[in-house]
Every structure is written in structure tokens, then in C-alpha cells.
Write a structure and sequence with these properties.
The structure holds two protein chains of two kinds.
Chain A: H1 9-38, H2 43-49, H3 53-81, H4 85-110
Chain B: H1 3-8, H2 26-57, H3 59-69, H4 72-99, H5 106-132
Helix pairs in contact in B: 2-3, 2-4, 2-5, 4-5
Classes of the chains: A mainly alpha, B mainly alpha.
Chain lengths: 114, 133
């Protein structure tokens, strides 16, 4: 059984944060360039930007990486500044719900039939 | 002997809680702003998904978002998010470099701190100029 206390429990989070950081550092500038190059737009043009499957897949994967990255970061912040255990747990739960809902919502938006 | 600890504790420890006396080194500023910008970006994520969902739903929603974005306050928020993203990305790259022991020396760490702060500010100014000028 995996130990829940002691050394090396933070290594996984640390690595996850770095790996997702590298993914995001590559993906976000590319996605930003893709959208900035197309501006300004009307509604039809805006919708057409999201038509390619590769774009929707990369946006969703980036959002998933962002959610994992933000989870580690927000967890670090709350572990450092929120001393009250109950409040910290409530905040961590709120972060999980916010991130999970955002990613699922984005998937629904990107794949909603229009 | 529960009192032995208290006996050796210095009575007048210097506790610098006076914000005007706390002096963060440049790398400290980069670090704390990395946290602040990260928290800002976290808060912006659900808002961004919401804005995307409204703008993609129908032409009326697109118009509503476009109108909202023409408001100066919305543009100010956008400029702030540009700063948050630019600073977080640059400070994060600096952090990754430090992880592989690049630029650990005091001089180079200070120089990279200045570079991150300036480059983030420059990107922000550029965004502000594009959105307000």
C-alpha cells in the first residue's frame, strides 16, 4: 500500500506541475497566435475558427493540462496560507469542482452541435 | 521541564510585520507575483469558458460578448489577465531553468528577475496600447 505520509509524497505533484508547465508553455502561445491572427471577426468567422478537430482537441488537452497545473498551484497556495484544516479542505474542494467543471463545460461548448 | 524552552527563547525577536520595512529581493517579487498571477488565471478560467460558451452559442450571444468587451472596465480586466499570463509564463520558464540549475548564481538570478519583470510589463503595455489606443 502506498504510504500517505513521509518523504517523497510531493515529488509526483512537483513533476506533474513541471510537465504540464512545459505543455502549456508550448500550447498556449500557439493557440493565442492562431486566434490573434484571425481577428477581427464576425460571428460566422468566430464559429468557423472552432471548426477544425485538431483545434478542439488541442484546446481540450490544454485545458486538462491547465486544470492539473492549477490544482497543484492552488493546493500549494492553500497549504502555505490557510492554516485552518476545515477551511483548507473546503477551499481545495472548491478548486477541484471549479477546475473539473470548467474542463467538462469547455468540452461541451467545443462539441455542442451548432 | 516544560519551562526550559520558554527560558531560552529571546524576548525581543525581530518580527518584521511592518510592510514598509519588509524588503523583498527582486527574485522574491518575481516569485510572489508568480503566485498572484497564477491565482488570477485560475479565477479567470471559468469566466473564460463562460464567455466562450455565450459567444459561440448564437449571433446574439456573440454580440453581447463583443459589446461587453468594448467596455473600458472589461478591457482593463483583459489587460490585467494579459499581464498575469505573460508574467506567469515568463517567471515559470525562469523557474524551469532554475530547476535544471541554470542561472542559480546571485548575479544571473537577479538579471533574469529583472528580465522577467520588464518583459511581462512590456507585453502588458503592448496589450494596453492595442486595446485602448
Amino acid at each position: 500500500m502506498k504510504s500517505t505520509t513521509g518523504a517523497h509524497t510531493g515529488t509526483g505533484s512537483w513533476l506533474l506541475q513541471r510537465a504540464t508547465a512545459v505543455v502549456l508553455a508550448l500550447a498556449l502561445p500557439l493557440l493565442t497566435a492562431y486566434f490573434l491572427a484571425a481577428l477581427p471577426l464576425d460571428f460566422t468567422g468566430w464559429q468557423a475558427l472552432f471548426a477544425p478537430l485538431w483545434l478542439r482537441v488541442s484546446m481540450l488537452l490544454s485545458a486538462a493540462a491547465l486544470a492539473l497545473h492549477a490544482w497543484v498551484g492552488m493546493r500549494d497556495i492553500f497549504m502555505d496560507y490557510v492554516r485552518h484544516t476545515g477551511l483548507r479542505l473546503a477551499l481545495l474542494l472548491a478548486v477541484i469542482v471549479t477546475l473539473a467543471a470548467s474542463v467538462v463545460w469547455l468540452a461541451a461548448v467545443l462539441w455542442s452541435p451548432t | 521541564m516544560p519551562d526550559s524552552n520558554r527560558a531560552v527563547k529571546p524576548t525581543a525577536r525581530p518580527v518584521y510585520l511592518d510592510l514598509l520595512r519588509i524588503h523583498l529581493p527582486l527574485a522574491g517579487w518575481v516569485s510572489i507575483l508568480h503566485r498572484v498571477s497564477g491565482a488570477l488565471l485560475f479565477a479567470a478560467l471559468p469566466l473564460g469558458v463562460w464567455a466562450l460558451s455565450v459567444s459561440l452559442a448564437d449571433a446574439a450571444g456573440f454580440r453581447r460578448m463583443a459589446d461587453a468587451f468594448s467596455h473600458p472596465l472589461a478591457r482593463l480586466a483583459a489587460v490585467m489577465l494579459v499581464w498575469a499570463l505573460a508574467h506567469h509564463l515568463l517567471a515559470g520558464l525562469r523557474h524551469l531553468a532554475l530547476d535544471v540549475h541554470w542561472g542559480l548564481g546571485l548575479r544571473r538570478a537577479r538579471h533574469s528577475s529583472i528580465a522577467v519583470l520588464l518583459a511581462g510589463g512590456l507585453v502588458t503595455l503592448l496589450a494596453a496600447w492595442r486595446l485602448f489606443a
